[in-house]
Amino acid sequence: MKGMLSPSLMCADMLNLQSEIEALDNLGVDYVHLDFMDGKFVPNITLDASLIKSVKSVLKNMKRDIHIMAYEPEQYFDRMDIGAGDIVAVHYEACNNLHDVLGEIHSRGASAFVAISPDTKTDVLADFLDEIDGVLVMTVYPGFAGQPIVEGSFDKISAVRSIIDESNKDIILEVDGHVSWDLCQKMRECGADLFVAGSSSVYSRGMELDEAVNKMMKLIN
Ligand code: DX5
Ligand code: ZN
Fold first, then answer.
1. What are phi and psi of 195, to 5 degrees?
2. What backbone torsions phi and psi does residue 151 show, to the nearest 5 degrees?
3. Distance between CA 178 and CA 175 in Å, rounded?
4. Residue with CA at minimum distance from ligand 1 atom 12
5. Looking at ligand 1, which atom is closest to the CA of residue 139?
């Protein structure tokens, strides 16, 4: 599977979000990563649900890659106008009944991803392989951009890759957190397909967006 890019909008210029989104869309980027946080599952608040909904109205080709760091994420699906074409990643650690939540995402025509935080073991995935379209491996603790990668992340990516390959299912492996210029190729070698690019790459200082996106696309393919 080709390497796909999902720049993290929470790392973009918050005062010019529409032009930031349109610039990514015009560069042919596959996804835009939209982080939603409830302030309880993680001690932070970022993009709100109605903004995530309004992103839909400005997209031409790019799709939404929605990462919900919140307890009972299903309560936000209407407000975000979840539908066909969307990726919706919900946290294993945040759902009372993950089977039901995954079913709810599919009932809206969207792709259901399960996100696992650094301290969550990969064997929790076994029960959900028939119900997911992707796994979002957090390589930092969820909640903030600009953090260093968590020790053991590469082994974790490789372990999830093996689980997916052994399942013979069409499951995308997404990585999120410190996907930097110098680490993204190793993440690719470990088996990542979809790369959330934030402050340590696409939105790092001192590089024009088009140059950064093109550089990242080369590094992950
Ligand atoms: C953190 C978010 C990430 C974050 C990535 O909880 O899920 O998407 O924006 O930012 P960097 O790339 O700076 O780690
Ligand atoms: Zn994220």
1. -115, 120
2. -50, 135
3. 9
4. 198
5. 14
Residue 141 token pair: 């603790």
List all residues 6 or more positions away from 186 whose beta carbon is below 8 Å from its beta carbon. Answer: 154
Q: What is the DSSP letter of 167?
A: H
Which residues in the chain land under pLDDT 50?
Answer: none
Pair 138, 116: CB distance under 8 Å = yes
Q: What is the DSSP string of 172-198?
A: EEEEES---TTTHHHHHHHT--EEEE-
Distance 180 CA to ligand 1 centre (A): 11
For residue 202, give the amino acid letter.
V
Contact of 53 with 81, CB cutoff 8 Å:
yes
Residue-range domains of the chain with CATH: 4-219 (3.20.20.70)
212: its two tokens: 């950064």
Task: List the catalytic residues.
Answer: 35, 176
Using a 6 Å cutoff on CB, does residue 29 contact ligand 1?
A: no
Residue type, 47: L
> Checking DSSP bridges between strand 87-91 and strand 4-7, what pairing results, if any?
unpaired
